[in-house]
Specification:
The chain starts with a helix and ends with a helix. α2 crosses α14, α3 crosses α10 and α12 runs antiparallel to α13. A hairpin with a 5-residue loop joins β6 and β7. By secondary structure, it is an alpha+beta fold. The protein has 17 helices and 27 strands. The longest helix has 20 residues. The structure holds glycyl-adenosine-5'-phosphate (GAP). Glycyl-adenosine-5'-phosphate (GAP) binds next to β14, β17, β20 and α14. Glycyl-adenosine-5'-phosphate binds next to β14, β17, β20 and α14.
Length: 594
């Protein structure tokens, strides 16, 4: 798809989303607020379907995952421990001319002539400015003239009425990211900008009362790990999942809802034994090579097998709600992209019209998070593993020491990267070794972390289709169809009386609606020609349509067998078949849920 086609497609999707009530700009009547979006009646259903299905697959259908619903605002120490207070920032810089804020690591490099100005004099007064300014001109017959034009605007904004910029020098540069690609104006040096939204708890706005809106749902899961472990009586390996709002003060919200400032996440923290423990119990750690989404988890899986299982399962899940396999890609993060605690991260990316971009990240987070909360809160986050303790009892001392050495070394590597001195880190790692030899360890984590809004956008982009159809009279028209998978479609079925001026027929249609409503979302529509009503449902992605006609009422003398049957129309094939009303609910439920 060319850039023009992609832009055109996005415009159509954005327009349909607004027109039919999927997505609105937040606070639109006040001009909107950048990076915030509201979901209309259909968008709310779409998102709810996505979250409910994720919840069902992640916890209700699994014996080894528990759910959690934690607060958005937590104790600020949570963010200190997680590293967000100190390191959750993006480098940003400002355009000296427009004041627009840009992410320094996302600036397109530019090549051309840089013209440097040492200041400017005001021709109309005795005012002057000594502020240095520079402009990069990519292509021009006369770069100094073009740059001077931009510089005049800059010095005007510094209070000079009729500025005459003073050229200091000009030089050729290649691939510079020091200039605003939109206007060539100089950018400030990059500064770190923390992405957490700050607020105050209680009536006093003091530093002591600062709190943050959570930038991810994950940390609440770590902070509640011990409670959930205790009440659920789960044994490692097991997971805790959560769906909820997250907030990031993104410097450049963009690509519609793709990068928003308020969004929802669906996160699973899956706690596993460290590889040394797996080895102690089972004598080996299974290789990850043959692990697939269909694999049955094995007791001797180490972190690599679990990681592979989860990213393969997540890809299969996306396919199960209609995203085609060929538009989903996995990307292993490069070593220099990895968060400091991550052993490996795989991003699942989707071909959006604006490019192939991340939908979800599956990170192998080692034991970093629980270790941090243990250290900062002073509350142990270890588990006592009976199987491990029993294995240790059977093991000879050499083997025990070999495994304990490895565990102690890994703990030392973690501890020596904290504020502890080397001596303190050694002492703590020794304590961890002693606890390990008694059957205790800090669990490791595999984290599949998905964005609800990004997925809703992927589903909208994937569903959008236009096709030319020709009716019985030979008339052609373009039909816009949202080809949602029935599992996520906002409405599952439309119910239509063929005509609205026949009270018996309308009553029958309402009866059918009332019969289906407890089981699925039903849209009842009696206005307009039946073809128009089908088109309206096609445009919002309703996969099935039911028409109650005169045959349903037993009014066709030649077809008495059609009494109490309806036509069932398939959105994609537009084919219709007759189905007895008594079979409709079970038929539709199996079509929707597969
Ligand atoms: N706990 C790990 C974590 O939060 P992340 O890669 O920063 O990792 C996970 O976020 C997912 O959350 C992303 O893959 C994306 O789907 C979603 N997400 C992150 N930032 C977002 C934003 N500004 N707008 C919309 N979705 C976002």
């Amino acid at each position: 798809m060319s850039q023009e086609q992609a832009k055109d497609l996005m415009e159509k999707i954005v327009s349909l989303s607004k027109r039919r009530g999927f997505i609105f700009q937040s606070s639109e009547i006040y001009g909107g607020i950048n990076g915030f979006w509201d979901y209309g009646p259909l968008g709310a259903e779409l998102k709810r379907n996505v979250k409910d299905y994720w919840w069902r697959c992640m916890t209700q259908d699994r014996d080894d995952v528990e759910g959690l619903d934690a607060t958005i605002i937590m104790h600020p120490q949570v963010w200190k421990a997680s590293g967000h207070t100190d390191t959750f920032s993006d480098p940003m810089c400002d355009c000296l001319l427009t004041k627009k804020r840009l992410r320094a690591d996302q600036i397109d490099p530019m090549s051309g002539t840089v013209v440097y100005f040492s200041g400017a004099k005001d021709v109309d007064s005795d005012k002057s400015s000594n502020d240095a300014f520079s402009v990069l001109i990519e292509k021009s017959q006369d770069p100094v003239k073009s740059a001077t034009k931009t510089a005049k605007q800059y010095y005007r904004s510094r209070g000079l009425n009729n500025p005459e910029p003073v050229v200091e020098k000009s030089e050729e540069v290649e691939n510079s990211t020091g200039f605003n690609p939109e206007n060539g104006a100089q950018l400030t040096e990059p500064r770190q900008f923390n992405l957490m939204f700050k607020t105050y708890v209680g009536p006093v706005e003091s530093e002591d009362n600062v709190a943050y809106l959570r930038p991810e749902t994950a940390q609440a899961i770590f902070a509640q790990f011990k409670n959930v472990h205790a009440v659920s009586r789960q044994k490692v390996p097991f997971g805790i999942c959560q769906v909820g709002k997250a907030f990031r003060n993104e410097i450049n919200p963009r690509n519609y809802t793709f990068r928003s400032r308020e969004f929802e996440q669906m996160e699973l923290e899956f706690f596993i034994q460290p590889d040394e423990v797996v080895e102690a119990i089972h004598g080996n750690v299974a290789p990850a090579d043959d692990v697939t989404a269909d694999s049955v988890p094995q007791p001797n899986w180490g972190w690599q097998a679990w990681h592979k299982f989860w990213f393969a399962s997540r890809i299969a899940w996306y396919q199960s709600i209609g995203l085609p396999g060929e538009n989903l890609h996995i990307r292993w993060q490069e070593d220099d992209e990895l968060a400091h605690y991550a052993r490996a991260t795989v991003d699942i990316e989707f071909d959006f019209p604006f490019g192939c971009q991340e939908l979800e990240g599956i990170a192998a987070r080692s034991d970093f998070d629980l270790s941090q909360h243990q250290r900062v809160s002073g509350k142990p986050q270890t588990v006592l593993d009976d199987d491990f303790r029993a294995a240790l009892k059977e093991m000879d001392d050499d083997r025990k020491n070999e495994l304990a050495d490895r565990y102690q070394k890994a703990r030392f590597v973690y501890l020596s990267n904290t504020e502890l001195t080397e001596e303190q880190a050694e002492r703590e790692a020794m304590k961890d070794r002693e606890a390990f030899l008694k059957g205790n360890y800090v669990p490791h984590v595999i984290e599949p972390s998905a964005g609800v809004d990004r997925l809703a956008l992927a589903l909208l982009c994937n569903a959008y289709d236009e096709e030319t159809v020709t009716d019985e009279k030979g008339k052609s028209e373009v039909r816009t169809v949202m080809r949602f998978n029935p599992k996520v479609a906002p409405y599952k079925v439309g119910v239509f009386p063929l005509v609205k001026n026949n009270p018996e027929l309308v009553a029958k249609a309402k009866e059918v609606k009332a019969m289906l409503s407890p089981h699925m979302t039903v849209f009842y529509d009696e206005t307009g020609a039946i073809g128009r009503r089908y088109r309206r449902q096609d445009e919002i992605g309703t996969p099935f349509g039911i028409t109650i006609d005169f045959d349903t009422m037993g009014e066709s003398e030649d077809k008495p067998e059609l009494k109490d049957t309806v036509t069932l129309r398939d959105r994609d094939s537009m084919k219709q078949e007759r189905v007895p009303i008594s079979e409709l609910t079970s038929r539709l439920l199996s079509l929707i849920h597969g």
